[in-house]
């Protein structure tokens, strides 16, 4: 890891930011990634069966015409809250025995701008980043434009991250 000017390593700086910090230091064989492929396939099937990938369901949500998507999102929030509580309460570690660390995050106005931009993109395209690959897999190949836009947006954010309000 590179040492930054303020003598923090990149990992130390990122651990206090909103970027994922639970990175494994363990090196694995290539085939150990097959578990992620399997989980991704299962997740994609769940997205398709629950209609999370449906442009019409997403439009219904943003037009306040249906509770379907709000119910799914609310369920995910409840599962996330319970999961984090269990991890903290029982000091659960990764499957490789590494600790899972949570740092408190400061709220700032950049999160408002980011959330509004994210929601606007979601409403316009009818595609949240999570199910993009599942949408493409169902044959909605036009979503590839949204995927490329998401990749470009991520790159632009990374390029100008230090100049943005955090």
Automatic annotation (TrEMBL):
The chain crosses the membrane at residues 36-56, 68-87, 112-134, 140-158. It comes from the Bacteria. Keywords: Membrane, Transmembrane, Transmembrane helix. Pfam families: DUF6691. This is Transporter.
């Amino acid at each position: 890891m590179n040492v930054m000017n303020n003598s923090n390593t990149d990992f130390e700086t990122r651990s206090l930011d909103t970027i994922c910090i639970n990175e494994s230091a363990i090196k694995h064989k290539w085939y150990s990634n097959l578990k992620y492929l399997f989980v991704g396939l299962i997740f994609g099937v769940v997205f398709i069966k629950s209609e999370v990938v449906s442009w019409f369901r997403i439009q219904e949500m943003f037009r306040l015409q249906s509770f379907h998507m709000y119910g799914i999102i609310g369920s995910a929030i409840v599962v996330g809250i319970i999961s984090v509580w269990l991890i903290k309460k029982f000091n659960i570690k990764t499957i490789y025995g590494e600790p899972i660390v949570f740092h408190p995050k400061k709220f700032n106005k950049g999160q408002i701008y980011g959330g509004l931009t994210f929601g606007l993109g979601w409403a316009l395209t009818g595609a949240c980043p999570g199910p993009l690959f599942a949408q493409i897999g169902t044959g909605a190949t036009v979503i590839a434009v949204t995927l490329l836009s998401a990749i470009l947006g991520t790159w632009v954010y990374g390029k100008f991250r230090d100049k943005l309000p955090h």
